[in-house]
Amino acid sequence: MMDVAEFRRRGKEMVDYIADYLENIEQRPVYPDVEPGYLRNLIPSEAPVEPEDYNDIIKDVERVIMPGITHWHSPHFYAYFAAASSYPAMLADMLCGAIGCIGFSWAASPACTELETVMLDWLGKMLKLPECFIAGTSGRGGGVIQGTASEATLIALLAARCKVINRMRASNPQLSESEIFSKLVSYTSIYSHSSVERAALIGGVTMKKVSTDKNFAVRGETLKKMIEEDKAAGLIPFFVCATLGTTPSCAFDRITELGPICNEENIWMHVDAAYAGSAFICPEFRPLLNGIEFADSFNFNPHKWLLINFDLMSFVTMFPHGPIKRLTCRGCRWSPFSSFVLQHWQIPLGRRFRSLKMWFVFRTYGIQGLQTYIRKHVSLAKEFEKMVLADENFEICAEVIMGLVCFRLKGSNEINQKLLERITKLREIHLVPCQLEERFILRFAICARTTELRHIQRAWSHIKKLAYEILQESSHCLKELFCQYIPVDTQ
Q: pLDDT tens across 97-137, in order?
């Protein structure tokens, strides 16, 4: 059994191991070379009866765990979106685990509830959100930390569903809840994250996909037409999820157009800015958030781009009573602290002291430090865009606004799929694809805190080398095929 003396010693060893891991992470292959089921054969089929030596456990981290790790914080990782990481956040996570409170209510741990409320206000002010989203001391608006954007979207949809049912029954008491429920319809972009559609599935309502413009953004005119058609068919539009920074291409739905329509139609507009939201702390990107004043709720993930380790998602609403009314099992009198029960804003009842990570990171880096970090990632993405544009064999497929570059080899989907397959197989860098207008696209996202220009240059050289090999092979195959059909001159 580990006593406090050994814990002190082992804890220091673990900090050294973590520091060594992160300091040397780029020496490891970014993507694992294992097959599904690899791990089961490396460990016993049952738990040990007798305690094992801690040294053996630590040795098995390298033998069992590390071979199956995709190294998200490697500077060779360009897949998905950034997963934030910083030393202050790790230290705060350690303290969170040590305190170990289950902060479902104010009384369960006052500091857990109060710090979270204040940190969400700090964050809202960093983004210059409208006052109606700030809790302050009056508790009129406010936020809560969720695990992921998936949870936030579901909470917003459930609150919107509750609101429209109550409104419809108030105006027509003869309507049953089931009658209203069957006619509810929600909307989101064809390029929104799959979690938005999943929220509708869990919420038991219809969700319709809205087509986009040439920049892959939802426009007001398109949404308005769909709403009018659905109302004429006897349906009840009640919820719109707009995306600022879509997963495939980092496109921005036009919430300055969508918001007034939603307000006029009494439709709840939720804004999902999971990745891009962090950048709004920079004045040059804040205009992309214009129109948020029309929204009923808003979420983004500091655990993507604000140096706060997973999991920490910010969800704010100007109607905090909405989630509470929908998710509470007992009466809850609204008050910012004494009766403010955060369990009513989320799916699980228990919650960790995650706001410690925000407090540590915001104070360690300051707003200027966080802005510098985001701007560096954006500048690296712009450098990669220049490299792609300088090569006539490649093309850029979407506007580069933040830290994501969508590009491809000019040609068929098949040749781009082959390029990605080779990149993945060699494991020097890691990318993932997307589909835009049925075209197979490669996504290059600046992700790691330690990514520098030299890593971008190395990645581009690697991509070009593999691309040219594939183009030469294709050219050779076409030449052979062409020769087969040339008539042989027998004279």
A: 999 888 887 888 889 888 998 999 999 999 999 888 888 76
Instruction: Identify which of 432, 452, 453, 454 has the alpha carbon closest to the alpha carbon of residue 442.
Output: 432
Q: In this structure, are residues 303 and 92 in contact, taking their beta carbons and an 8 Å threshold?
A: no
Residue 47 confidence (pLDDT): 94
CA distances from 41 to 37, 47, 51, 70 (A): 8, 14, 21, 19
**Burial class, 325, CB count within 10 angstroms (exposed 0-12 / middle 13-18 / buried 19+):** middle
- In the chain, what are the helix, strand and coil shares in percent, each to the nearest 5? 50, 15, 35
Task: Please count the CA atoms within 13 angstroms of the CA of 41 that sit on its side-chain side.
Answer: 6
Please tell me the pTM assigned to this model. Answer: 0.89
Q: What angle do CA 386, 392, 393 make, to 5 degrees?
A: 110
491, HSE (Cβ side, Cα atoms, 13 Å):
1
Summarize pLDDT for 240-262 with one digit per residue, the tens: 999 999 999 999 999 999 999 99
Helices 355-389 and 87-99 cross at an angle (nearest 10°) of 150
C-alpha 22/C-alpha 445 separation (Å) is 20
- CA torsion angle for 402, 405, 406, 411 (degrees, to 10)? 150
Measured CA to CA, the distance from residue 221 to residue 254 in angstroms comes to 10
Q: What is the pLDDT of residues 345-369, one digit of tens each?
A: 777 777 889 999 999 999 999 999 9
Which one of 2.40.110.10, 3.40.640.10, 3.90.280.10, 3.60.110.10 gives the CATH number of domain 101-329+338-352? 3.40.640.10
The CA distance from 256 to 240, in Å, is 13
In the predicted model, what is the mean pLDDT of residues 387-396? 96
The Cα–Cα gap between 341 and 381 comes to 42
Can the peptide bond before residue 311 be classed as cis, meaning omega within 30 degrees of 0? yes
Between CA 383 and CA 302 the distance in angstroms is 24
Distance in angstroms (rounded) separating the CA atoms of residues 491 and 78: 59
Residue 92 pairs with which residues in a beta bridge? none
Domain locations along the chain: 101-329+338-352
Q: With beta carbons less than 8 A apart as the criterion, state whether 237 and 231 touch.
A: yes
Contact criterion met (CB below 8 Å) for 339 and 332: yes
Amino acid at 15: V
Structure tokens belonging to residue 142: 């406010």
